[in-house]
Amino acid sequence: MKLADLAAMAGVSTATVSRALSGHPSVSKTTQERIRALAREHGVRPNQLARNLRLRSTGAIALAMPLGHARTQHLTDPFFLALLGFLADLLVDRGYDILLSRVLPDSDEWLDRLVDSGRVDGVLLVGQSDQYDTIERVAGRYAPLVVWGVNRPGQRHLTIGSDNRLGGRMAGEHLTGLGRRRAMFLGDPAPPEFADRLAGLRDVTEAVEVLPCAMDPDGVYDTVRARLSAGAPPDAIFAASDVAAMSALRALTEAGLDVPGDVAVVGYDDVPLAAHTSPPLTTIRQDLVAGTALMVETLLRRIAGEAAESAIVPPQLIVRASA
């Protein structure tokens, strides 16, 4: 039996049958189930590869995390894990398979290889790292590319992300409101998102000590411990991420310093663990539910050849006991 025969039995077009059997979201769940039942009953097994070639579709989306600046970070980082989880659920619900990749760029061609592989219909990048120029170049020729990150004036590639500068400013205003005057920014200031968070803190106070460090937990802990042994501590720490803030809490506690009495600590992201640290972590929340939904919707519009724009997700100050 051909798809055309199945379509006649179901009272729909052949294209609808093809989309239903592939789980395409344009076909209702009820219709999909009815057509699949008919297909099973009559032994219809459409050739998936032939269908993909005919539709010029792979049915897959790449989820990639470029780590040019932080090669020691892993997909198990709580923030990345949460964001990737939301994206994966949304894509599976839309009928897509997922190609997951943690990229350690070895040349400027890593993104070209991904988009030209013929294995995916589009690409979602989690973060820009130090690969902004590469992403910008590829976006000039490859439309179905959406990035979680910052947006710069005149930028080609589409981004969805937190207003990082506003988030940094919110953290700074909260700390100065607590009477803190010797703030320290903890983290790598190079990546665009972290740079904007630092800039927001400096919008509020110019007296900011910057403590660069590798963004893995052990690297942050070792850096903070060395800094505390070298001189008087700051009275406030704004960490570039919650993971960095948690490592700072550990180092401060081991040094005999009280949080928030001696040092107030604010993180960024509001990962689930942030509410369960000791003390619970004050942080800047990124709305990943809204942000990931925007990423997927924006990518699907670009895959369909439709216009789409970047979007900014407002951050929110979450006050807990650490500051």
Automatic annotation (TrEMBL):
Coiled coil: none annotated. Pfam families: LacI, Peripla_BP_3. It comes from the Bacteria. Residues 1-55 form the HTH lacI-type domain. Keywords: DNA-binding, Transcription, Transcription regulation. InterPro entries: HTH_LacI, LacI/GalR-like_sensor, Lambda_DNA-bd_dom_sf, Peripla_BP_I. One of its GO terms (molecular function) is DNA-binding transcription factor activity. The keyword Acetylation does not apply. PANTHER family: ALANINE RACEMASE, LACI-RELATED TRANSCRIPTIONAL REPRESSOR. This is LacI family transcriptional regulator. It comes from Sphingomonas endophytica.
